Amino acid sequence: MNLKTVVGLVFIAGFSGLLFMNFGQQVSGYMSFAEAEETGQTAHVVGTWAEQEPMRYNRAQNVFTFHMKDKKGNVRRVRYSSPKPTNFEQAEKLVVEGRATGGGAFEAKNILVKCPSKYNDAKGLARKEERAGG
Amino acid sequence: MNWLAGAWAVFKKDLRLELRSRYALSTLLLFVLAVTLVVLFGIGDAPLTGEVETTLLWVVVLFAAALGLGRAFVYEEEQGTVLLLRLHTRPSMVYAGKLLFNTLLVGALTLVTAGAFWLMLGLEVGAPGLLLAVLALGALGLAGATTLLGALLARAGTGGGALLTVLLFPLLTPLLVSVVSASQKALAGVAFAAAREELLTLVGFAGVTITASVLLFDYVWEE
Predict the structure, then answer these.
(1) Residue B215: φ, ψ to 5°
(2) pTM (two decimals)
(3) Theoretical Cys-Cys bridge with B160: which of A40, A83, B156, B178, CB 3.0 to 4.6 Å?
């Protein structure tokens, strides 16, 4: 192996590391609320339901409003033009898909509710029962 | 002949040939104009979002590039000038010269396409600097990937056209995804930092394809 090959391989390794790390992040596409507000585009935001904030469903307009806390701890009001998803209160993680509309609000087109498994996660089950009871 | 002078001579030769025949220039220009007109008349007054506009923009650039870039080496084979180049220059000089020429060609192509969209479709750009950076990096990556494949294609002889498509399009997926996403952000007018991942992906892509091409070109070029 001559010098050119070695240098070339090092360059390829470096650049492909840069490529794959950034491309992976970009494709997975989970953002915080702040980032979603910055881009103004359709975004996926992961977080948890902020239970202490008000939540309601307007039957006349078919709008479900709640507050969600993202991974960085920012709380935003989320509007969702559908009834409340089933198992919403039991969810240990929420993924909302939509765009930030300004004024601390987020318009969700879709909500994914991630529930703890019923079968093998004893801790998750306990938490679920506690919440359902309270 | 030192390396830089050699590469520059290959580039100048290609540029002069292109300016004389205007084969690639006229084909690409007409292609871009035709597609923009189809979009203009087909869509009419319907509102176009930034997402749709950038996607259309890069579809046009991709197909125009696939149309024009394979030519660089096919031309040498057709004219029978390959042996002459092999005698007088080192392979890396030929690669560098062709890469420079192809980058210039794709760069001009993306600029013309963006300009045509801006004039005819009323493209609104929030962050022109970011868009220019994205266009430049996209052109470099596109040229980096197609220059080596163009050399392969020329060696494959007839039937090489299908080879280019088969090899090129899967290779370009990360480039195209990032470039479209970054252009959308540029239209929305975000700061450079918000498009950092896309820009770094593009730098990585151009780096990988160009380094790999430099290493592999010797084997493609010499018998």
Answers:
(1) -70, -40
(2) 0.74
(3) B156
